[in-house]
C-alpha cells in the first residue's frame, strides 16, 4: 500500500512517514475496495455473475487501481458474453499495470484468435439487429436473429433474456422458461432472469396443464414434451375422413384426367403414327420386293418358254431326222408307202443344208417312183371299176403332184368321184381340172360334167319336192 | 405482470469491437481516492 500523495510505502500509522499526509481515510477506502473485491470474487465463484459485477464495480469505484478487481470484472464480463466490455477492462488494467498483469494474458488469448474476435463482433451486430427488430415489433425476425446469436455465443445473458421476453410476449411460456433456465445456469442470481422466470412460472400455473395462447394455437404439456395444436382443428371423426378421402379421390381423378390422360393419348397417337409409318415403309419395301420378284418370275417364265421352245425345236429336229432316217430305211426296204409316210413327217427346215439337199433329192425320187406306182394302180383300179380304190390311189397321186401325167390323174380322180356319185367331191375336182388345165378338152369335159351334175342335183331337189324321184346320173358323152 | 415495452427499454445495444477504444477513453475512472485527494487539496487551499 502506497501513499496517494508521495507514493511512499505506508506503515500501520495513519500518517505517511514520508510526507506526513493523513492516510486514515485513504486506508479505509482501500480496505472497502478490497472488501468489495472479495465479495465480488465470492459471487463469481458461485456464478452470481451479475452480483459479482456490482461488487467489483463498487470495488473499482473506491480504488480504480485495484488491478485484481478490474481483471476479475473483465473475466466476469467475458463469462457473461460481454467480450467487448471485458476487453475494455483488461486494456485499462494493462495501462495501469503493464508488468505482471493477468490482463495481459487474457488480452493475448482473445487477440491471438482473430476468427473468434470476428465471430464475437458478428454476434454483437446480430444481437443489435435483433434488438432493432424488437423495437420495430418484428418479434418473429428478432427471435430468428437471436437464435443465431445464441448459437454463436451461448453465454450471452442478455440474448437469453431478450428471447425469453419475446416468447413471453407471444405466450410461449415453455420456451421462455427454457431460455431463462439456460440463462440462470450462466448467471444464477441475475435479478432480471429471476423476475422473468417468476412471471413465467406464474403464467404456467395460471393456465394449469393447458394454456390457451393469444394466437390460434394450443400448447399441451405432456411430461417434458410440449405439444402444439391449432385451435381451429376439430375432430369430425368418420365424416371428415370420408369427405377428405372423397376430395382426395376427386383431385386425383382431375389430375389423371387433365395431366396423365392427355399425355397417354399423345403417346399412343405418336406410337400409332410411328407404327403406321413403319407399316407403310414395310408395305413399300414389300411392294418393291414383289415387283422385283414378278420381274424375276417373268424373266424365268420367258427363259422357261425359250428353253421349252428350244427343247421342242430340238425334239422336232430329232423327230425330223428320225423320220428322215425311217423314210430312208423304208425306201431301202422297198416299202415306198412307208417311206413316203415317214418323209411327209420330216420338216425340211429343221434339217441341215446337206441333209436338206439329200431330202429334196430323195423326196423327188420317191415321189416320182411312188406317184408312178400309185397312178398305175389307180388307173388299173379305175378300169376295173373299183372306183373307191382308184379314188384312194389317185388322191395320193394328186397330193404329191396335182398335174401328174398332164392332169390325167386329177381328171380320173374326178371321174372316180362321179362314178362313186360323190357329187361334191366330183364337182370340186372338176373345178380343179378347169383351173389347172384351162382351154383343154379335159377342162371342157369337166365343165360339162359339172353342169350335168348341177342339173341333176336340181332335178333331184325338184323331184323330191314334186314326188317324182330321179336318182340316175347321165353318162358323159365322151369317155 | 411484466410490461414488454418497459422491459425492452432496459435492453441496450452491445458495444461492438470497433467501439471499444472509444468506450475505454470515455469511461469515467474517477474513484474515491481521486475525490479524497481533491478534497484534501481544496482543504489545503482554504487553510492557506
UniProtKB/TrEMBL annotation, chain A:
<dbReference type="Pfam" id="PF13432">
    <property type="entry name" value="TPR_16"/>
</dbReference>
<feature type="transmembrane region" description="Helical">
    <location>
        <begin position="236"/>
        <end position="260"/>
    </location>
</feature>
<feature type="region of interest" description="Disordered">
    <location>
        <begin position="457"/>
        <end position="479"/>
    </location>
</feature>
<keyword id="KW-1133">Transmembrane helix</keyword>
<dbReference type="InterPro" id="IPR013105">
    <property type="entry name" value="TPR_2"/>
</dbReference>
<feature type="coiled-coil region">
    <location>
        <begin position="276"/>
        <end position="317"/>
    </location>
</feature>
<keyword id="KW-0812">Transmembrane</keyword>
<keyword id="KW-0175">Coiled coil</keyword>
<dbReference type="InterPro" id="IPR011990">
    <property type="entry name" value="TPR-like_helical_dom_sf"/>
</dbReference>
<dbReference type="Pfam" id="PF07719">
    <property type="entry name" value="TPR_2"/>
</dbReference>
<dbReference type="InterPro" id="IPR019734">
    <property type="entry name" value="TPR_rpt"/>
</dbReference>
<feature type="repeat" description="TPR">
    <location>
        <begin position="157"/>
        <end position="190"/>
    </location>
</feature>
<dbReference type="InterPro" id="IPR050498">
    <property type="entry name" value="Ycf3"/>
</dbReference>
<keyword id="KW-0472">Membrane</keyword>
<feature type="repeat" description="TPR">
    <location>
        <begin position="407"/>
        <end position="440"/>
    </location>
</feature>
<keyword id="KW-0802">TPR repeat</keyword>
<protein>
    <submittedName>
        <fullName>Tetratricopeptide repeat protein</fullName>
    </submittedName>
</protein>
<keyword id="KW-0677">Repeat</keyword>
Amino acid at each position: 500500500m502506497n501513499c496517494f500523495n508521495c507514493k511512499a510505502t505506508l506503515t500501520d500509522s495513519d500518517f505517511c512517514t514520508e510526507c506526513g499526509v493523513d492516510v486514515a481515510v485513504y486506508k479505509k477506502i482501500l480496505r472497502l475496495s478490497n472488501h468489495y473485491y472479495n465479495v465480488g470474487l465470492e459471487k463469481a465463484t458461485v456464478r452470481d455473475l451479475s452480483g459479482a459485477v456490482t461488487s467489483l464495480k463498487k470495488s473499482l469505484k473506491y480504488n480504480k487501481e485495484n488491478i485484481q478487481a478490474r481483471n476479475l470484472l473483465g473475466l466476469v464480463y467475458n463469462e457473461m458474453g460481454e467480450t467487448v466490455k471485458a476487453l475494455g477492462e483488461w486494456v485499462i488494467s494493462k495501462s495501469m499495470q503493464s508488468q505482471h498483469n493477468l490482463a495481459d494474458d487474457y488480452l493475448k488469448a482473445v487477440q491471438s484468435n482473430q476468427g473468434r474476435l470476428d465471430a464475437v463482433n458478428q454476434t454483437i451486430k446480430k444481437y443489435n439487429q435483433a434488438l432493432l427488430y424488437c423495437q420495430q415489433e418484428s418479434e418473429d425476425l428478432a427471435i430468428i436473429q437471436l437464435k443465431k446469436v445464441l448459437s454463436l455465443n451461448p453465454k450471452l445473458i442478455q440474448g437469453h433474456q431478450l428471447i425469453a421476453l419475446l416468447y413471453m410476449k407471444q405466450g410461449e411460456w415453455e420456451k421462455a422458461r427454457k431460455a431463462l433456465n439456460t440463462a440462470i445456469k450462466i448467471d444464477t442470481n441475475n435479478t432480471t432472469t429471476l423476475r422473468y422466470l417468476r412471471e413465467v412460472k406464474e403464467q404456467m400455473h395460471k393456465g394449469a396443464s393447458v394454456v390457451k395462447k393469444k394466437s390460434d394455437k394450443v400448447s399441451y404439456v405432456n411430461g417434458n414434451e410440449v405439444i402444439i395444436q391449432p385451435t381451429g382443428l376439430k375432430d369430425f371423426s368418420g365424416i371428415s375422413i370420408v369427405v377428405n378421402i372423397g376430395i382426395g379421390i376427386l383431385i386425383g381423378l382431375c389430375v389423371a384426367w387433365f395431366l396423365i390422360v392427355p399425355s397417354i393419348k399423345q403417346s399412343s397417337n405418336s406410337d400409332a403414327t410411328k407404327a403406321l409409318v413403319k407399316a407403310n415403309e414395310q408395305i413399300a419395301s414389300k411392294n418393291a420386293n414383289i415387283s422385283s420378284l414378278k420381274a424375276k418370275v417373268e424373266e424365268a417364265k420367258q427363259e422357261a418358254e425359250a428353253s421349252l421352245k428350244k427343247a421342242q425345236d430340238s425334239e422336232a429336229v430329232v423327230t425330223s431326222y428320225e423320220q428322215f432316217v425311217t423314210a430312208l430305211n423304208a425306201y431301202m426296204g422297198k416299202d415306198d408307202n412307208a417311206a413316203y409316210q415317214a418323209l411327209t413327217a420330216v420338216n425340211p427346215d429343221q434339217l441341215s443344208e446337206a441333209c436338206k439337199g439329200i431330202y429334196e433329192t430323195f423326196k423327188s425320187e420317191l415321189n416320182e417312183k411312188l406317184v408312178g406306182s400309185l397312178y398305175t394302180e389307180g388307173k388299173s383300179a379305175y378300169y376295173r371299176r373299183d372306183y373307191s380304190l382308184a379314188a384312194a390311189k389317185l388322191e395320193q397321186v394328186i397330193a404329191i403332184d396335182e398335174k401328174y401325167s398332164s392332169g390325167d390323174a386329177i381328171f380320173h380322180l374326178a371321174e372316180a368321184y362321179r362314178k362313186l356319185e360323190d357329187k361334191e367331191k366330183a364337182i370340186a375336182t372338176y373345178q380343179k381340172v378347169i383351173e389347172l388345165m384351162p382351154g383343154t378338152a379335159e377342162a371342157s369335159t369337166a365343165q360339162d360334167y359339172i353342169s350335168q351334175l348341177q342339173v341333176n342335183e336340181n332335178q333331184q331337189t325338184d323331184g323330191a319336192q314334186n314326188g317324182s324321184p330321179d336318182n340316175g346320173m347321165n353318162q358323159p358323152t365322151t369317155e | 405482470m411484466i410490461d414488454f415495452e418497459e422491459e425492452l427499454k432496459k435492453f441496450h445495444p452491445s458495444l461492438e469491437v470497433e467501439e471499444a477504444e472509444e468506450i475505454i477513453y470515455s469511461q469515467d475512472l474517477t474513484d474515491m481516492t481521486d475525490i479524497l485527494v481533491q478534497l484534501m487539496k481544496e482543504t489545503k487551499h482554504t487553510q492557506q
